[in-house]
Amino acid sequence: MSKKSVVFGSILRKFKDDPARFRRILKAGMGLETLRRKKFSDKNRPAFINTINHLAVLEVFKALKGNNVAWVNLLAPSELLLATGMSPVSAEGISGTMSSMHLEDLPLSLASSNGISSSLCTFHRTSIGTAFWKVFPKPDIVVTTTILCDGNAGSFYKIAKSYGAPFFLIDVPRGRKPEYVPYVERQLYQLIELIEEITARKFPFDKLAQHLEWEKQTVENLYRARKLLISKSIPMHLYEQMNALYVMHTLAGTKELLTASQELIRDLEASQTSPDIRLLWLHIPPYYDNALFETFSPTGKTWVVTDELWWDWLYPVRPEDPIKSLAEKLVFNIEAGSVQERGEFLINLARELNVSGAIHFSHWGCRQSSGGAGYLKSVFSQEKIPFLELTGDCVDHNSESAGQLKTRVSAFLEILGVKE
Strand, helix or coil at 235? Predict the structure, then answer.
């Protein structure tokens, strides 16, 4: 995400054949970066941004320490893990960490040499290769859902198998129908049984209720913040949009994310700056330092004010009925629906936030993002909202095509009235 990350990666690369030493150095570096982001953050930046940047690196640091860790996908019900004291880490976030240091080629190569198809997206191939590499310690459990990505089941199973860790797949039928809720609810109770077996303790439903109370307050705060986003914004780097969407999913129900939501409200209320052009980002931006980071810099005229994946997970969970409400949260997630439902959701979001246009980054190997982009473009065109589809790789920096991305974005911004 920065030049210093790439420099650190070049040091780590020297120890690629010694996973234990690689891990020690990476853990030391991540520990120092965690401390820096917590104690010595830039006081001129919005407090919300400093908090989510700290939480994003802290999540990976905890995974490197290896105590009470769960590898999860972005849409797993992390609340069940957090209640037991486990630290969830997004496997996709681990891939992003490797990418930010320009080290993703190492796990990608390892995945390929172990028969992982190159047609699988690089988020999954990198996380699988990292698991094969053993530079992260064994997690206590690996949990994923079928929401959004067809590759989740196979990829996360391979991660679990490579470590010899327990694996749990939550099957969430596509369609967002109320009759699916009991089916998913039963699976969540089965997951609780597995967690009890792993921890050798009864599941703490009282702690889960507390986490859901914090999540309920967080969701209310984020809706308040969204109203402020209609006319205000805070300056964020593109990679900070990524950090935000990761921690919002994996740390939903924590006091830390509740604090961040309160900070976001205060930051927006105090904001005195506004860009000339406000954009909505669809899907996920590239994680490595790239040409788009400069184009959408906080010091520029054009800001990405939010990502769609800030908002998909918001659901009014009920602390008094925790498992059923978590099942509903999974079933009714907009990403578990049709592309038509996603299109309606995004059009409403774009109208509400009064954005100048939308950019959809179609990640290579991601059938969901690439397959839906054409329909979304037609919907946005009907609503007279400028729409740009970019294609590229979010993880493999060697596939950046910087010149092409910059040319297409420049032409799009020119249509919006931005002059270089």
Answer: coil
